[in-house]
Design a protein that fits this description.
By secondary structure, the protein is an alpha+beta fold. About 20% of the residues lie in helices and about 30% in strands. The strands form seven sheets. Strands 8, 10, 11, 13, 18 and 21 form a six-stranded antiparallel β-sheet that branches. A six-stranded antiparallel β-sheet has the order 9-12-20-14-17-19, with no helix packed on it. Strand 15 and strand 16 form a beta hairpin. The protein is globular, with a radius of gyration of 24 Å. The two termini are about 15 Å apart.
Length: about 500
């Protein structure tokens, strides 16, 4: 896959042979429109590109061995970006020159190739004590932060946090913090984002976001309408390390809440059950998302290796859902086996993800598939896949988030998201309840989304066909949004949610 704006010489993919990559000489045997070229083992752009999917013939020669084959190359229009509101930094942590106090651990400017702040970042080594980590940042005029997200950027390594909070202050100074503040975090919040088995070489910079109204006051003088600065407060086992980054405020881009129903693995029940229920309530509209699963089937369906159940959805059915306001998201292509994906090279993983979008483009869909849904073990915590996911998609939704997930399920995602590569979904079939409890948990999440003008992602597999409790909860969901509270919440897809803020014309 390559963008139609790519310049001559842009690398499309790296060619390789499964039985050893050394000694092979590559050449093109077919080159539609003379748009492509080979340099060494690199397939590149050769000139002006035209949108479409092209069969490019390739020959590999080593000694007397000649192997020929072809690959599909998708030339695509530029994706619309994830919208971002104008941020206000409440605590800057780019270098040690920004640090006011490092009481819970000593920091050092350390080379980090993926740092969002240049070539280095602050690496903190915890000392086992409980205290502040503050920056010198303080606003001259208080910030009204009642409707938006506090986002914290960090990079975990091998730290075990026993407590951790973000604190927001409207009084005092970073060198002498006030006793009155708002805080969010604790052992069940931020800390669980760090509790993964990571080494110093495979942590990645990420972020988490919390709606401001989830921050609870301490003392009587805390004022969210006049924030001046923020600080970290916590404790971790001595010797644990993580990179500390900025604490920012992002205004909410939404004026009402939204719920996004997603359907993984391309089960037919998304069409036969979810669609008619939705269309009956919305006058024909059907804003749901289909997330195909491996193994891709370009003729009879769009994925899902399981058999039985409600069967596979077809391309014609997906087109009907799309015409009614739905979205075809992106999933895996050939496998959901995490061990197979981890054994791939980076180039192979890139090709795996690009095939998903190329397949969709063959059926007239492309921009829809900019939004990815994590599949099975291919999750955000599986960091080996993350660079290739980021290079292929603009956002990624976690697909296995139950009510007690780690990182914790966040029913109150706001736009812009706290982390566009780890947007949290609740699986309808994994709420931890049965009978009416399923709806009780879903309604709880909906109420939080409404209170925050937030976004609630609700994921399904074949649940509407196999689980009467989920079916009843889905019926209640539609009634909640379309009858009981249509003034404060609406159905959206990931794409239509972002379209008003990124210029998306909603074409295929």
């Amino acid at each position: 896959m390559v963008l139609d704006t790519a310049s001559t010489g842009t690398n499309i993919c790296t060619l390789f042979m499964s039985n050893g990559s050394s000694g092979w000489a590559y050449s093109l045997t077919s080159n539609p429109g003379n748009q492509f070229q080979i340099s060494g083992a690199s397939l590149q752009v050769a000139g002006a590109l035209t949108d479409g999917v092209y069969a490019v013939g390739v020959q590999a020669v080593r000694g007397a061995t000649v192997i020929t084959g072809s690959m599909m190359v998708a030339v695509t229009p530029t994706d619309f970006p994830v919208p971002v509101s104008t941020k206000t930094t409440l605590a800057q942590f780019h270098t040690m020159a920004d640090v006011q106090s490092q009481s819970f651990g000593a920091g050092a400017d350390t080379a980090m190739s993926d740092s969002p702040y240049g070539s280095t970042a602050i690496l903190v080594t915890m000392n086992g004590g409980t205290n502040y980590y503050t920056s010198k940042t303080i606003l001259g005029t208080g910030l009204d932060a009642r409707n938006g997200t506090i986002r914290f950027t960090f990079k975990p390594f091998n730290v075990n946090l026993t407590s951790f909070e973000i604190r927001l202050f409207s009084a005092g100074t970073p060198s002498s913090p006030s006793a009155n503040y708002h805080s969010q975090g604790g052992i069940s919040g931020i800390t669980s984002h760090f509790t993964r088995t990571l080494g110093v070489n495979n942590g990645v910079f990420e972020s988490i976001g919390y709606p401001v109204n989830q921050f609870k006051p301490t003392g009587t003088g805390a004022d969210l309408t006049a924030l001046k600065y923020a600080a970290l407060y916590g404790r971790g086992s001595a010797g644990g390390m993580f990179c500390v980054g900025d604490i920012d405020f992002y205004p909410n881009l939404r004026t009402k809440a939204a719920v996004i129903p997603t359907f993984d693995d391309a089960w037919a029940s998304a069409y036969t059950i979810a669609r008619p229920l939705m269309q009956a309530a919305l006058g024909g509209a059907c804003p749901i998302m289909i997330i195909p699963g491996a193994v891709a089937d370009p003729v009879n369906g769009v994925g899902g290796s399981a058999t039985g159940g409600s069967g596979k959805i077809t391309w014609a059915q997906i087109d009907e859902i799309w015409a009614a306001g739905g979205q075809l998201g992106a999933g895996m292509y050939s496998t959901e086996d995490v061990n197979i994906v981890n054994a791939m090279t980076a180039a192979q993983r890139t090709l795996e993800f690009q095939k998903v979008r190329a397949l969709a483009l063959q059926h007239g869909h492309f921009r829809d598939t900019a939004d990815f849904g994590y599949q099975s073990g291919i999750a955000y915590s599986n960091l080996a896949t993350l660079p290739q996911i980021k290079s292929t998609f603009r956002s990624a939704m976690n697909g296995l988030a139950g009510i007690n997930a780690n990182p914790p399920f966040a029913p109150s995602e706001l736009l812009p998201f706290g982390d566009q590569w780890s947007v949290q979904r609740l699986q309808h079939g994994l709420t931890g309840g049965t009978g009416s409890q399923v709806w009780t948990i879903v309604q709880y999440a909906l109420d939080i989304a409404v209170a925050n003008k937030g976004v609630f992602f609700l994921d399904h597999h074949d649940d509407l066909y196999t689980n009467p409790d989920v079916y009843n909860s889905y019926v209640n969901l539609i009634n909640y949004v379309t009858v009981l509270r249509p003034d404060v919440i609406e159905f959206k897809t990931m794409r239509s949610l972002q379209a008003p803020s990124n210029g998306d014309d909603m074409t295929k």
